[in-house]
């Protein structure tokens, strides 16, 4: 009955539109109706062509003007048929009164009305910036998984890029149809103002007054205190058009994997540039001779450019960890965030680029260094979250073949980002613990979409995301501009310098 009324309303609307157009046409062209129809036809073709071009060039503008009305039309038109075809329709509640009874002459008689199926009831429709959301009430016995299986069918029926299923509350599902791929056409970023205006820049921590009882890294200017919000960084966009936030308070350590040219460095560059503006210490470990991270040198507390320097940096960070744990113990705090602001140290993010360079070694000395690196990183992973030391580890793959301890380290890195990878096994290893669909999705990332990744965490939640690209020169300029925020870590920098000068560790 309801769908019948919708159809009648649609037909009446079309007739009304038609009569209006005819009225306008005859007003403009008098009785020359063939000319009027020709003009109308040409206009329609031009509008169609314009819409196609707009879709290519500016899908964000195309969607509300053209895409959404068409998708809504197809959704309404195909709803019943699609649900039936995809196995989501259920028998109508009142159509069950039928059965077989014995007839007068001994034969069987079928009694009752024929069995009718109805589509699940839609209870809401919203057009969003880049798609439409259809809320559906589940029929008794139906589960969201059935709708997830049908999502691809709906995407084709509605002529949209993809349909995702969400559960807004028990008994309902939301089918989110994305009108176009927001990762292929990300909305231009309106850059948030820098966290600090230049005039507000504090003196560097090493300029702060020395405190006798704590090392210099704890002697921070109280005017510029770190807060947990400083560890939440917007690095790109999610497929549902929300900002992709990396929150190191919620997931203290991250593993970032991807094949060569998949976008790992671009993501790391964005992260460093954003963190550079905040009261956060940055330590770089780039065993490829510092090729990737040296542009950020002025803002880094230390940069290790080979495995020997990495050992020194990691062991220096373990020293920092030790001192921070003593400070916490003295103040009865369980994490740095519970310390009084006057002694609370800044968090430190340790960026490890191409972790395999640290762990794969041929000779005995190299193997010993690799073992020290991995043991140190594991310890930083275990204790760092509470003491404000966070790991950002990237590499092309991260499997047990990297050596003893690799699996244990991976288990510490609860945040996962998997770009396009060379093989299914790498996707599986990076996204271990996440739903199987996330692994399949990672394998489908096209080669021409650098920066697209599956991001998930140990809660099982995952999203398709794309980093916001930032030119390395621009990122280095930002880091340079905020060089005064470089956190002085003598335990780390001293060790690295000693190795560099040939003093050994
Ligand atoms: N989010 C993005 N949007 C657009 N282009 C991107 C994005 N991420 C990466 N790219 C482009 O892809 C190319 C490779 O990116 P990147 O150097 O970050 O890959 P990588 O995985 O670090 O490669 P390698 O392992 O070889 O260093 C670069 O040209 C970069 O501009």
From TrEMBL:
Residues 241-428 form the FtsK domain. Keywords: ATP-binding, Membrane, Nucleotide-binding, Transmembrane, Transmembrane helix. ATP binds at residues 258-265. The chain crosses the membrane at residues 33-50. It comes from the Bacteria. InterPro entries: FtsK/SpoIIIE/SftA, FtsK_dom, P-loop_NTPase. Gene3D superfamilies: P-loop containing nucleotide triphosphate hydrolases. This is FtsK domain-containing protein.
């Amino acid at each position: 009955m309801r769908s019948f009324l919708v159809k009648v309303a649609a037909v009446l609307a079309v007739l009304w539109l038609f009569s209006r157009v005819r009225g306008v046409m005859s007003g403009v062209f008098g009785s020359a109706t063939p000319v009027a129809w020709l003009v109308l036809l040409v206009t329609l073709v031009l509008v169609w062509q314009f819409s196609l071009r707009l879709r290519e060039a500016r899908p964000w503008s195309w969607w509300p003007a053209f895409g959404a009305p068409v998708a809504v039309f197809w959704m309404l038109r195909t709803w019943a048929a699609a649900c039936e075809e995809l196995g989501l329709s259920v028998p109508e509640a009142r159509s069950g009164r039928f059965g077989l009874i014995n007839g007068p002459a001994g034969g069987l008689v079928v009694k009752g009305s024929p069995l009718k199926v109805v589509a699940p009831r839609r209870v809401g429709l919203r057009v969003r910036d880049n798609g439409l959301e259809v809320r559906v009430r589940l029929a008794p016995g139906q589960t969201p998984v059935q709708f997830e299986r049908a999502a691809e069918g709906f995407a084709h029926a509605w002529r949209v890029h993809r349909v995702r299923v969400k559960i807004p509350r028990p008994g309902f599902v939301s089918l989110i149809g994305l009108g176009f791929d927001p990762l292929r056409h990300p909305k231009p970023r309106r850059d948030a103002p820098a966290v600090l205006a230049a005039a507000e820049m504090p003196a560097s921590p090493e300029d702060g007054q020395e405190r006798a009882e704590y090392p210099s890294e704890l002697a921070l200017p109280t005017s510029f205190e770190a807060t947990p919000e400083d560890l939440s960084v917007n690095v790109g966009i999610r497929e549902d058009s929300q900002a992709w936030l990396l929150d190191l308070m919620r997931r203290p350590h991250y593993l970032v994997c991807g094949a060569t040219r998949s976008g790992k460095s671009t993501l790391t560059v964005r992260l460093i540039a954003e963190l550079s503006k905040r009261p956060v210490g940055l330590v770089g470990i780039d065993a490829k001779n510092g090729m990737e991270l040296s542009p950020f040198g002025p803002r880094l507390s230390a940069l290790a450019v080979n495995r020997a320097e990495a050992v020194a940096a990691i062991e220096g960070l373990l020293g920092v960890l030790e001192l921070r744990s003593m400070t916490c113990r003295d103040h009865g705090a369980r994490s740095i965030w519970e310390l009084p602001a006057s002694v609370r140290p800044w968090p430190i993010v340790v960026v490890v680029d191409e972790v395999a360079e640290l762990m794969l070694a041929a000779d005995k000395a190299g193997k010993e260094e690799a073992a020290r690196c991995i043991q140190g990183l594991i310890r930083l992973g275990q204790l760092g979250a509470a003491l404000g030391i966070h790991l950002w580890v990237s590499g092309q793959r991260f499997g047990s073949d990297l050596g003893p301890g690799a699996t244990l380290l991976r288990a510490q890195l609860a945040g996962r980002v998997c770009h396009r990878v060379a093989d299914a096994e790498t996707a599986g290893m990076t996204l271990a613990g996440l739903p199987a669909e996330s692994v399949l999705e990672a394998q489908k990332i096209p080669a021409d979409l650098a920066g697209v990744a599956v991001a998930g965490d140990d809660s099982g939640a995952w999203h398709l995301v794309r980093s916001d690209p930032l030119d390395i020169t621009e990122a280095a300029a930002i880091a340079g501009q905020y060089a005064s925020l470089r956190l002085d870590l003598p335990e780390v920098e001293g060790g690295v310098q000693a190795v560099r000068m040939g003093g050994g560790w």
